[in-house]
Design a protein that fits this description.
The structure holds two protein chains of two kinds. Chain A is of the alpha+beta class. Chain A contains eight helices and five strands; from the N terminus they run H-H-H-E-E-H-H-E-H-H-E-E-H. In chain B, strand 2 and strand 3 form a beta hairpin. The longest helix of chain B has 28 residues. Classes of the chains: A alpha+beta, B mainly alpha.
Chain lengths: 180, 244
C-alpha cells in the first residue's frame, strides 16, 4: 500500500468511530479528498483480496474498520465484544417514522402508530438514535424529532438517502394531508 | 357491503401483547380474514376486533377502545341508505384505509431497518461499547475571570458586615500580686495556689498572680513545686532568697 493508505489505515485503526473523508484528509496536508478516497479504496481492496478478518466499510458519514460477520459468534463467545441489544418492534416503528418524516412531533407519530409513543421516544433519545431538532408551530410549540449520526452508524447507512424510497416500498403512501 | 368471504375461520385466541397497537391488530385481522383492504367488510372486522379486545390490559384500553368505537361508527355509516347514482358519496372507510396503508408502510420500513440493524450488529468496530452505557463527559466549567469576580462581588454584597470585637487592654497588677504573695509568705513558710488568690478572682487577677509567682521564683524569693501536671501548686518560702 502507498504511504497515504498506510497512514489512513493507522488512523482508522486508532479511531473508535467512523471517520469522515474530510477529517482523514486533514491527516496529510498534501492529500486531497480525491487522494484520500483512492487510498481508502486501496485499503478496502487490500483487505478484500488478501483475506483479512476485518473489512473497511463506509457508514455513518464516514469510514470504519469492522470485523467480518463470520467471526461475530466466536468473538462474542469469548466475551471480547458484545452485540448491542435489538430494538423492539415498537421502537423500530417509531424510528422508521422519525427517519422518514423528520422533523416530526410526537402527536403525528402517535397518529400514525395509533398508540402512545412517549416512553419509546424517550428511550430512543437516551440511546442517542434520535434527538430533538426543533420546535413545531402551533399549540405548545411541540418538540420535533430527527435522527442522529449514531442512527446512521448503527444501521450501517452512509446517509439518509440510502433508506429505501417510499415509492420503492410495496405499499405507497399518499402524502397529501387528509381532510377530516 | 360485501360480506361474501367465508366465515369458516374460527376466531383464534391471541394475546394482545403481541400487537403493537390497534392498527397492528386490524391489519392482522384483515390478513387473516383474507379480505381486500380497499373494501373491508366492516361489520365482520369490527366483530372480530371486539372479540379480541375483550381482555384488555388497562394501559392499552384507551387506544383499542377508541379504534373499536371508530369501527362501530363506520359500520353505522355504512348502513345508511345511499343513492346509487350519487358520485359524491364518500366511503366512510376511506380514512381508516389510508391510516392502515400508512401504518403498513411503516411496518415495511421497520422490517427493513431491523434487517439493516441485524447486519450491522454482526460486525464489531474497534473498542465497541454499548451506546446506552456511554455517558457524555461532564462539560468543562467555562468561566471567565470577570464572571468569577462579579460572583465574588455578589457574595461580598450578600455577606453581612463582619462582626468586629474591640479588645480593651486591661492592665495586669503584677506588683500588687507580688505584695500579696510576700504578705502570705511572711505569715507561713508554705502556701498553696488558693492562698494567694481569692476564690472569685477574675482572669486578670489570676494572670497577675501567676506572673507574680514566676517573677518571685525567678528572683529566688520562693520555690514552686507541682507534684503532677495539673496538680496543686505548693509555694515554699526560700530563705536564701530572702537573705540575699
Amino acid at each position: 500500500m502507498n504511504p497515504l493508505a498506510r497512514l489512513l489505515e493507522a488512523a482508522l485503526f486508532a479511531s473508535n468511530r467512523p471517520v469522515p473523508v474530510e477529517e482523514l484528509a486533514g491527516l496529510d496536508p498534501e492529500a486531497s479528498p480525491t487522494d484520500v478516497r483512492a487510498a481508502l479504496g486501496e485499503i478496502r481492496d487490500t483487505y478484500q483480496a488478501n483475506g483479512h478478518g476485518v473489512e473497511l466499510v463506509e457508514l455513518g458519514e464516514g469510514w470504519q474498520v469492522l470485523t467480518r460477520p463470520e467471526f461475530t459468534d466466536a468473538i462474542e463467545r469469548a466475551q471480547l465484544a458484545a452485540r448491542p441489544h435489538r430494538l423492539s418492534g415498537a421502537a423500530l416503528e417509531t424510528l422508521a417514522i422519525v427517519a422518514y418524516r423528520q422533523p416530526i412531533g410526537r402527536a403525528e407519530i402517535e397518529e400514525i402508530r395509533g398508540v402512545n409513543c412517549g416512553a419509546i421516544l424517550k428511550s430512543l433519545q437516551e440511546r442517542a438514535l434520535i434527538d430533538v431538532t426543533g420546535r413545531g408551530e402551533g399549540m405548545g410549540r411541540p418538540l420535533l424529532y430527527g435522527t442522529t449520526p449514531l442512527f446512521l452508524e448503527q444501521f450501517a447507512l452512509r446517509h439518509l438517502e440510502e433508506l429505501p424510497r417510499a415509492d420503492e416500498l410495496a405499499v405507497t403512501l399518499r402524502v397529501e394531508p387528509r381532510a377530516i | 357491503m360485501t360480506a361474501t368471504a367465508p366465515m369458516h375461520n374460527e376466531p383464534f385466541v391471541v394475546e394482545l401483547q403481541q400487537f403493537e397497537g390497534p392498527l397492528d391488530l386490524l391489519l392482522t385481522l384483515i390478513r387473516d380474514e383474507r379480505v381486500d383492504i380497499y373494501d373491508i367488510p366492516i361489520a365482520r372486522i369490527a366483530e372480530q376486533f371486539l372479540a379480541r379486545i375483550r381482555f384488555l390490559a388497562i394501559d392499552q384500553a384507551a387506544e383499542y377502545l377508541e379504534m373499536a368505537a371508530r369501527l362501530l361508527r363506520i359500520k353505522a355509516q355504512m348502513l345508511l341508505p345511499r343513492n346509487q347514482d350519487n358520485d359524491a358519496w364518500e366511503d366512510p372507510r376511506a380514512e381508516l384505509v389510508r391510516r392502515l396503508l400508512e401504518y403498513q408502510q411503516v411496518r415495511e420500513i421497520s422490517d427493513h431497518l431491523a434487517r439493516m440493524a441485524e447486519d450491522r450488529r454482526s460486525r464489531f468496530a474497534r473498542a465497541w461499547l454499548p451506546s446506552q452505557s456511554v455517558e457524555p463527559p461532564p462539560a468543562p466549567l467555562s468561566l471567565s475571570l470577570s464572571e468569577l469576580l462579579s460572583a465574588v462581588d455578589r457574595v461580598l454584597r450578600i455577606a453581612r458586615e463582619p462582626h468586629l470585637h474591640d479588645v480593651v487592654p486591661r492592665p495586669l497588677d503584677v506588683d500588687g500580686a507580688i505584695r500579696t504573695i510576700r504578705a502570705v509568705l511572711e505569715l507561713r513558710a508554705r502556701a498553696r495556689w488558693y492562698d494567694v488568690i481569692r476564690p472569685s478572682a477574675e482572669s486578670w487577677e489570676v494572670l497577675s498572680a501567676l506572673l507574680a509567682l514566676l517573677e518571685l521564683a525567678r528572683r529566688g524569693e520562693l520555690r514552686l513545686r507541682q507534684a503532677a501536671p495539673f496538680g496543686s501548686l505548693v509555694i515554699t518560702r526560700e530563705s536564701a532568697g530572702q537573705a540575699a
